[in-house]
Amino acid sequence: MLNELRNKAETAFKANGFPTTKEELWRFTDVSRVASAEFSNDWKTSDLEFQPLDKITVVFENGKLSREKSNFDDLPKGVCIGSILDLVDPRIGTLADAQSAFVSSNTAYFSDGAFIEVTDGTKFETPIHLVFLADVDGAAFHLRNFISAGVDSEVTVIEEYIGQSGATYWTNVVTEAFVADQGFVDHYKVQRESATSFHFQTLEAHLGTGSVFSNHAVTFGSALGRNDIRGKLTGEEGEAICNGLYLLKDKQHFDTHMFMDHAVPKCNSHELYKGILDDKSRAVFCGRILVQEDAQETDAIQSNGNLLLSRGAKVNTLPQLEIYADDVKCTHGATIGELDEVGLYYLQTRGIDPVKGRAMLTFAFANEVLDEVKCKVAKAYIEGLVHEWLEQVEK
Amino acid sequence: MALLEIKDLHASVADKPILKGINLTIKPGEVHAIMGPNGSGKSTLSNVLAGNEAYVKTAGQVLFDGQDIDDLAAHERACAGMFLAFQYPVEIAGISNMYFLKAAVNAVRKYQGKDQLDAMDFLDMVEDKKKIVKIRDDLLERAVNSGFSGGEKKRNEIFQMAMLEPKLGILDETDSGLDIDALRIVADGVNALRSPDRGFLVITHYQRLLDYIVPDHVHVLVHGQIVKSGGKELALELEDEGYASWVDEKGA
Ligand SMILES: Nc1ncnc2c1ncn2[C@@H]1O[C@H](COP(=O)(O)OP(=O)(O)OP(=O)(O)O)[C@@H](O)[C@H]1O
Ligand SMILES: [Mg+2]
Fold it and tell me: Residue B230's domain spans which residues?
């Protein structure tokens, strides 16, 4: 069955090819550098280091699961973790948009990925840390993750991508998440790919009645990157939280495309995205909220704030509301600005020097995104990375 | 030695001359009040003293604790012991009041060659200062001034002043926006901070504040100049007569 899916995907990928900037969804992001490159399938064990965030780590080195580096042997009943190649589920491939070049090439060629399942009623508190190491120059890594949370279950997943500095490669990930009724998936993505790499991820989440899907996507790496985050609320009283932070410098280009589909009444979706851009970096944020005709009493909030640290940095932000129901509460907003000089002066009059003051204000700007983070280790880890990034930028 | 010595100070904002030759000397232990009509330059004076770069000193000299303030950036003036309680305190999203205060206290201590306070010492200090200026705990946890009411912001300014223990406190209309009880609490706080080596410059429109914080000297600032100085009774005269005689003379 998987073979059939892969064959179909390969046919679609070959027929459609990569998108161009003539397509509305790709207007601001030119992927010709990926489309025209030749990537190898070379493989080696990875020399990269990583910091396990908790007891459970699932490590993929250059696109392949490493049992040696991973640690997920001791699992309670109701929790299943493994390679997607070993644990097949008929729902794989049913969520992600088969027409997208990145999804179809992924389906055709994925070499491995994480399979995570928590059964009905299972509340698993230990965060599952997925680590993807990339240090083969010139390679493509197609990774496929699958997350399934049963009725009234709970699971936390942290995807972290780490790349060898100076290596040029292409990471192409698809993550599909199924959250059954009253389920809770707390999902994080920390993207620390090399500054010369290409990184694309499509994340698709399907939310049942009364379920919660929370996603925090934090991006530091890749020369050219994009997150396509798509949520579908299919049962009443579902809640989707999709927050994100991108910290860009040099000539990095990073694009977030969000699509939140309110198909049924009484659901909430909240999206808070913030970006800090230095040098000649460029960010794209496109957040589309669709409220279908039946989706009365929808509560949707979206905002995107950007802080420019340099005149050369640029942002295209396009919040979009598409509302077909009449009893809804929807707001969106976007800002692009520089650091508040009045705030800086205020801090200075309290003895805080401007360098420290700038760092405090910049961190505060970013940190708002992390306010809702429930997973303590994820929060502390991300905060540390943000501080590190800010210190580098100050130099 | 005088704590603050202002000599023939001229200053401009956005190329517009505002201060036109101010002379004022504050000795340790003294409280000076400045009164004057809207737009006369009171906040401009406090901003020039605090080191706001939007306010440009064009002539004259200011010595703070014997040192020319031209040599000090805003944060260095604060570290050297100058404190400005803002007429319009600034909201800072994303930084808790406690974190902000700790950063400020330790920045000042570092400059003054004192040990850094650790979390415990800092909390002890907060508890201590809360006795001087009553401030609700939830305001300390919230982001600096964010969503604070007008009165809460003003009280937070005085709390910060108590924490930073400056040599000179400049209070720019700290009384405006305060209810009667809050005015009393803030004034008591300022009085508790009065000491033989600390001075205050109190800017206000209302004689009422000066009933509580009794000044040694009162100055009237009109059109960027001090047109009259006197004792505390001058404030009472102004309350009766207003500024008409000076404003009219200048044809404003
Ligand atoms: N940033 C600025 N840009 C332009 N003009 C300014 C600026 N700041 C102050 N001014 C002008 O300078 C003059 C003095 O203002 P200032 O705020 O010092 O008055 P003030 O005496 O404090 O008045 P108030 O009693 O209303 O607080 C006013 O005419 C004001 O409009
Ligand atoms: Mg004023």
Answer: 4-249
Scanning B102-121 for CB atoms below 8 A from A yields 103-105, 107-108, 111
Q: Number of structural domains, chain B?
A: 1
d(CA A86, CA A313): 45
- Of ligand 1's listed atoms, the one at least distance from the Cα of B46 is 18
Helix (H, G, I), strand (E, B) or coil at A162: strand
For the sheet containing B199-203, what is the strand order? B82-85, B168-172, B199-203, B31-35, B217-222, B225-230
Residue B206 is given by DSSP the state: -
3-state SS assignment for residue B31? strand
Contact B107 A352 (CB under 8 A): yes
pLDDT for B16 beyond 90 = yes
Is 0.90 surpassed by the pTM of this model?
no
| pLDDT band of B251, cuts 50, 70, 90 | very low
Q: Does A348 touch chain B (CB under 8 A)?
A: yes
When scoring A349, A352, A371, A386 by the number of chain B Cβ atoms within 10 A, the one with the most, hence best to mutate, is A349
User: Tokens representing B34?
Assistant: 């400045």
CA gap A265, A298 in Å, rounded: 6
Partner residue opposite B79 with nearest CB, options A351, A360, A363: A351
Contact A361 B92 (CB under 8 A): yes
B165 φ/ψ sector (left φ>0, alpha ψ -120 to 50, else beta): left
**CATH number of the domain that residue B226 is part of:** 3.40.50.300
Residue range B92-104: mean pLDDT, rounded? 93
